[in-house]
Design goal:
By secondary structure, the protein is mainly α. It is built from 11 helices and 3 strands. A 3-stranded antiparallel sheet has the order 1-2-3, covered by helices on one side.
Length: 235
């Protein structure tokens, strides 16, 4: 009797990444959250992967957007590598399923930050495995990042980050208008530990707006976006 291969196996992840690992231990390490291991976890790989990701995105922005100066390139890089963006990419790759399959007895946290961290660790593992196999590790990582972000980079308007990075935009707009710096206050937290709901208030002087989200960071961003509409509408 033949046993069917699990759809969330490491082989499936390798197929989605387009890279069969010569050293499977690297891939296992990249999928090992600190809470799921008493030995080596993915924090060191995450450190390297973060640097590789920022380099790859910066290279693509420099190559593809000769019409942008340093400011817009830096801001849009921040939009592309923010936690929410990497979390979405991680889900598309099936990293949540791969993490569960790797640690069936002790599933690691599956929130946006742990999955974004795992994605960065995967990029580092790809780089190291390719280098050890005689390939150009940088080219392998760049190809994966390019497949994900090339079209958004090519099609982005210079103001693209304004709605995607509302906290920075709100701070800059308030300063430009001579208003006080934004202040964020957590109003409440509700829901179970695995699915919390945060309510946050953003204030600029007398203007304020509230928003709810699954994380304080998300709620702050949504509150900033709403307050930005109020602020620009009041001028």
């Amino acid at each position: 009797m033949t046993t069917a291969r699990r759809p969330d196996s490491l082989s499936d992840l390798e197929a989605r990444l387009g890279h069969p690992f010569a050293d499977r231990a690297l891939l296992q390490e990249a999928l090992t959250h600190i809470s799921a291991s008493k030995g080596r976890d993915n924090q060191r790989l995450e450190f390297l992967g973060d640097a590789l990701l920022n380099f790859a995105v910066a290279f693509l922005l420099h190559r593809e957007r000769p019409d942008w100066q340093e400011g817009p390139m830096s801001k849009f890089r921040g939009v592309l590598v923010r936690t929410d963006s990497l979390h979405e990419w991680a889900l598309d790759l099936g990293l949540d399923r791969a993490l569960t399959a790797t640690h069936p007895r002790k599933a690691p946290p599956m929130g946006p930050k742990p999955l974004a961290d795992a994605l960065e660790a995967i990029l580092a593992a790809l780089f190291l495995d390719a280098q050890a196999s005689g390939q150009d590790g940088t080219a392998v990582v760049l190809a994966l990042v390019e497949a994900r972000f090339l079209e958004p980079i090519r099609s982005a308007a210079p103001e693209a980050w304004a709605r995607l990075d509302p906290k920075t935009t709100l701070q800059e707009t308030a300063a430009r208008l001579g208003r006080p710096a934004p202040v964020y206050t957590q109003v409440s937290q509700s829901g179970p530990g695995h699915a919390p709901r945060f309510t946050v208030r953003a204030e600029v002087g007398a203007l304020q707006a509230e928003a709810c989200g699954p994380s304080r960071k998300r709620a702050e961003g949504d509150a900033a976006r709403r307050l930005l509409d109020l602020l620009t509408g009041s001028t």
